[in-house]
C-alpha cells in the first residue's frame, strides 16, 4: 500500500495559469513523470492552505517564479 492509498479525505488539485505582463505568453512546465509533456504548474493543496496559496506555492516550487 502506498501513501495515496492511505488518504481517506478528498485531495484538491490546483493548477495555475500564469500570463506574462503583456499577456503574450503563458508559463508552462515540462513534466518529468507520466503523463509526459507540457502542463500548467500545479499540485495538491496542503492542509490549511487556500486555493490561491496552493497555486502560488506550486508555481514557486516548480518554476522558481514568484507570483
Task: Summarize, please.
The protein has 67 residues and is an alpha+beta fold. The chain has helices spanning 3-6, 51-63; strands at residues 13-15, 29-31, 37-39, 42-44.
Number of helices: 2
The run of helices and strands is HEEEEH
Radius of gyration: 14 Å
Unreliable segments of 5+ consecutive residues: none
In total, the number of strands is 4
The percentage helix is 25-40%
Sheet of most strands: 2 strands, antiparallel
Strand order in the largest sheet: 1-4
The structure class reads alpha+beta
Strand content: 15-25%
* Termini gap: 37 Å
> How would you state the average pLDDT, rounded?
92
Explain the overall architecture.
The protein is of the alpha+beta class and 67 residues long. It has 2 helices and 4 strands. The chain has helices at residues 3-6, 51-63; strands at 13-15, 29-31, 37-39, 42-44. It has a two-stranded antiparallel ribbon with strand order 1-4. Strand 2 (29-31) and strand 3 form a beta hairpin. The protein is globular and about 45 Å long.
Keywords, separated by commas or semicolons:
two-stranded antiparallel sheet, 25% helix, two-stranded antiparallel ribbon, 2 helices, alpha+beta, 67 residues
List the helices and strands and how they pair.
Elements: H1 3-6, E1 13-15, E2 29-31, E3 37-39, E4 42-44, H2 51-63
Antiparallel strand pairs: 1-4, 2-3
Amino acid at each position: 500500500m502506498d501513501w495515496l492509498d492511505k488518504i481517506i479525505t478528498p485531495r484538491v488539485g490546483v493548477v495555475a495559469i500564469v500570463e506574462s505582463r503583456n499577456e503574450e505568453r503563458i508559463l508552462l512546465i515540462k513534466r518529468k513523470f507520466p503523463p509526459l509533456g507540457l502542463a500548467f504548474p500545479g499540485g495538491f493543496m496542503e492542509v490549511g492552505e487556500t486555493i490561491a496559496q496552493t497555486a502560488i506555492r506550486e508555481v514557486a516550487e516548480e518554476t522558481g517564479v514568484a507570483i
